[in-house]
Amino acid sequence: MMTGRRQPLSEKKIMHYMYQLCKSLDHMHRNGIFHRDVKPENILIKQDILKLGDFGSCCSVYSKQPYTEYISTRWYRAPECLLTDGFYTYKMDLWSAGCVFYEIASLQPLFPGANELDQISKIHDVIGTPAQKTLTKFKQSRAMSFDFPFKKGSGIPLLTANLSPQCLSLLHAMVAYDPDERIAAHQALQHPYFQEQRAAELQVLASHRRTLLPEHPMALEPLSHNWHASKESRKQKQPLRQEEDAKRLGPACLMQLPKLRLSGVTRLSSCSSPTLRSVLGSGTNGRVPVLRPLKCVGPNKKTDPQKDIKPNLKQCRLPTIARKGGGY
User: In the annotation, is 37 catalytic?
Assistant: First the structure.
């Protein structure tokens, strides 16, 4: 992308590439991973499609600090990686992306330090020394103390004079010294600088939806009309079903059984049957005798079933059987 190039890319092309880079970082950070080595050598571009490669230095955002101190290429290393004992977060990827942003636009590195001390000096020459509260955060996680002389900073070099103010605004937000004040990837995607890219992305999504969905979908009929139509069709089908059932079963199914007529009082006219007469007993005059309730016997009272039962049978004795030889 930049090897052998003498003229910088157009701002529209830069916007297109940086939007894809921020989307790749946002995707990684949302899935709990940060890259830790974002630089031009790890960015792959083919047919205007940008991909971020080389995930050998990736780390989980949920891992316990401190992380590895010597990480990322020096020119793209964030201040918290240089001034702390490995206490940095995923915001270091945004610092590196900001350095890549400037390098794509100007074809020159933003902070080309020869060593770690020179790297800090190059950062202070452009951005200036940080506020005291920011240095206090870094001192809490560093065994050695450091104090820098106050330096105002020259600001982003004028090599980017051909860029729009919105582009410079996003660049300054990505290389903020304090990581807590640095912009995140999902916030960078909503920056006004990417307004044109977001609109183009929405148009592409809308075109994909039109290809998947029919252009002229069938108009749906009202539900009330369908309900009334189905109700009328059921009424028409009911007599047809009854006629078909009658033809299939024959004339026997159309006959109705006579209704039973029950009288309120049952009275016996005669007791002609000797069995019934013996059961009812004498003196009933053909009427059903009145049933009397049984008397309940307590648990302490014992009843003798042989006293209650008085059989009219005569007692008979069976003859004895003579046994032969003890057998039966």
Answer: yes
Report the domain count for the chain: 1
pTM tops 0.70, yes or no:
no
Neighbours of 148 (CB within 10 A): 13
Contact 73, 45 (CB under 8 A): no
Domain containing residue 199: CATH number: 1.10.510.10
Q: Kindly name the residue from 26, 37, 178, 308 that is annotated as catalytic.
A: 37
Q: Note down the domain range covering 80.
A: 11-211
Q: Is residue 185 part of a domain?
A: yes
For residue range 271-297, list pLDDT tens digits in order.
555 555 555 555 555 565 555 655 555
- Model pLDDT for residues 192-233, shown as the tens digit of each residue: 999 999 999 898 888 888 887 765 555 545 544 555 555 555
- Tell me the C-alpha to C-alpha distance, in Å, between residue 134 and each of 83, 167, 187: 11, 26, 22
The single-letter DSSP state of residue 47 is T
Q: Are 173 and 182 in contact (CB under 8 A)?
A: yes
